[in-house]
Amino acid sequence: MKPRSLVSIDDLTTGEITKILSLAAEFEKNPVQDILRGKVVATLFFEPSTRTRLSFESAVNKLGGKVIGFTDSSSSSVTKGETLNDTIRTVNNYVDLIVMRHPIEGSARYASEVSTVPVINAGDGANQHPTQTLLDLYSILKTQGTLDNLNICMVGDLKYGRTVHSLLMAMSRWKTSFNFVAPEELKMPDEYKLYLRNLGLDYYETADLNEVINKADIIYMTRVQRERFSDPMEYEKVKNAYVLHDHMLSDTKPGMKILHPLPRVNEISTDVDANTKAYYFEQALNGVYTRQAIICTLLGLKK
Amino acid sequence: MKNVNDPKQLLVTAIESGTVIDHIPASTLFKVIKILGLDRIKNQITFGTNLESKTDGKKAIIKIAGKFFEDDDINRIALVAPNAKLNIIRDYQVIEKRVVEVPDTITAIAKCMNPKCITNFEKVTTRFKVVSKKPVALKCHYCEKITDQERLEII
User: Fold this and answer.
1) Minimal C-alpha gap between A83 and chain B (Å)
2) Contact A170, A18 (CB under 8 A)
3) Which overall architecture, per CATH, does domain A131-284 show?
């Protein structure tokens, strides 16, 4: 039988997502256990992503498992011209589960088809990064007490931002209203708006963050990158319009939380960090519990 | 009785039993042959191309003796010959006519238009879910990007 992998958030039913989130809550209460004793997990990072890799390695280590792997493809046999097929079919002999980050889109799906052990996609190019989406969902559920009928305000690069697209698709299962705040060049692509319209869900688009900030239960910030603009003048014009400052939060909802997939550059001013509405560092910690839940679910160690 | 002076009728001889695939665009005849694997079977095959057609411009026709196709097989040509018509022949008589239909999934025929897709880097059989049949839009099983009719390339 083919092992169960996690490649795309759409691979999971709503029931399975709910189960992973409640398992994450269990791990949060009791993060150090011996469940993975004797298990070996490979972290194959064909491109570097320190944050994601450390989060996975922390998750495995706290459960008593061991980690082997490489941190970028220059230190692996890929530089000798080995195919992904061969790398996976070799490594799957050594480990119980593979965590993989790869710049080529669809590489994780392909790896999951040739591997004899479960594969977790830790990002395949601009395509999918389902563990990020699950930790975002866990953070939203934990801070709001529910996933139903929330108002989510997505800010910044909504065109290229893989995390916002996956989060949008996932949250659309719980009757979310969306506010999209982005400069003209980086607006939410039509295919995602069409997806929401087909589900009968509301969304509102604006270039002005102040217009919608007070309605939000969750503000999801992303980085507006200079290199996304064909005209550098355009970037200079908009770059300060998508920066969150502490004074902007005074009339926001009391339970509102600010999320960010990190790394942050300057889109959230450091004066926000001390505000109780800032949640991005706790969000990163939630990533460890969520990944513990995902690993144990795929290995069939927790029902 | 056929008119022997009519050159159109002489181009391709009749078959006793088998399948005639008509109304193939002349430009995609060899793709149809490849998709159906006709270059690898031992059956007697005759074909004509650049024939005049009232409806399709230049068309092609293939006659395969002793060969009958399953729907799943023949529908594979729908991407390159959407208007193809099949005549099933037994005893020199047409006993059934069929049209082709774009299937729900496409395997090993189309190329993913995303240059960053794994199928364009490694020897991976392409697989698509058909998200729209007319015009054709294919969603890649691997990178999840859409390849539309305009950018559709047959391998």
Assistant:
1) 7
2) no
3) 3-Layer(aba) Sandwich (3.40)
